C-alpha cells in the first residue's frame, strides 16, 4: 500500500522546489534575451521545464489515488511506449491480430498481476507465455514473409515497454521489513535517480564533453558527460538514502547499478532510432519527444532495481 507519509512529502517538496527554481531561472533567461533574436537553447530549456511540470503533477495525482493510480499510470506509459515502438517498425496486416492481443489483453493482464501482487505469474507471464503465444499465432495465420523479424520485433517490444517497465510499480508489492507503507518512496527514488542521471549526463556533456563514447550511435553522449552524470547521480542517490531501506553506501551502490543500466537502455533505444533514421520516438511530451524517449533508461533500470531490492531486502 502507498500513502502520503512524511518522507514522501519532503521528497515531493524537494522535487517541486527544484522545478520552481528551474522555472524562475528559465523565465529570467527568457526575459534577459527577449529583446534579441530568439535563443533556441533557452526556448528549449523552458519547453523541457514545462514538460517536467506536467509529468510531475501527473505523478503526484497518481500517488494521491494510491497503488491503483500508480499502476494505471505505468500501464498508460507502457501503452504509449509500445505504440511508438510498433509504429516505428512496419508491420503486415497478418500481425494485427497479435498486436490486438498485446495491446488489449497481455499488457493489461501484466498490470493486473502487479495489482494482485501475484509475483510468480507476473515474473513469467510475458517472458514465457506471451513469448510462446506470439510465434504460434503468427504461424497459424500462415504469413511467412519476414516471419522471424516480425515476431521478434513484437516480442522485444513487449519485453521492453511492458515487462521491463512493469517492474517499476511492482516495487509496491515488495514486503520489506521495517518499511511498511513506504514502497512509493522506493519507486520515486528509482525514478528520480534514473531521470536525473539522464539530465546530469546531458549537462556535464554540454559543459565538458569532448570524447564521444559511441560516435556512430550517439555522438552527443561523451565520456565526460557519462562520468560526471553517473558520479553526480550516485551522490544524489546517497543523499536520498533516508527515503529507502538502504544504508548510505547501499543507496550509492544501488544508484550506480541503476544509472549504469539506464545508460545502456538509452544507448539501445538510440540504436533503434538511428536504425530507423529518426530523432525521437514521438512527440507526446512537449520538449521531450515520445514516451519511449522519456522512459528509455527506466526500461533497463527498473527490472534490475526491483530484483536487487527483492533479493537483498525482503
From TrEMBL:
UniProt keyword Cytoplasm present: no
One GO CC term on file: plasma membrane
Keyword set includes Translocase: no
Keyword entries, A-Z: Membrane, Transferase, Transmembrane, Transmembrane helix
Coiled-coil segments on the chain, per record: none
Alphabetical list of Pfam families matching this protein: CTP_transf_1
Source taxon at top rank: Bacteria
Transmembrane segments: 9-31, 51-82, 94-113, 119-142, 154-174, 186-204, 225-245, 251-272
A molecular-function term among this protein's GO annotations: transferase activity
Gene Ontology process terms (BP): peptidoglycan-based cell wall biogenesis
Protein name: Putative phosphatidate cytidiltransferase
Naturally occurring in which organism (per UniProt): Xenorhabdus vietnamensis
Lineage: Bacteria, Pseudomonadati, Pseudomonadota, Gammaproteobacteria, Enterobacterales
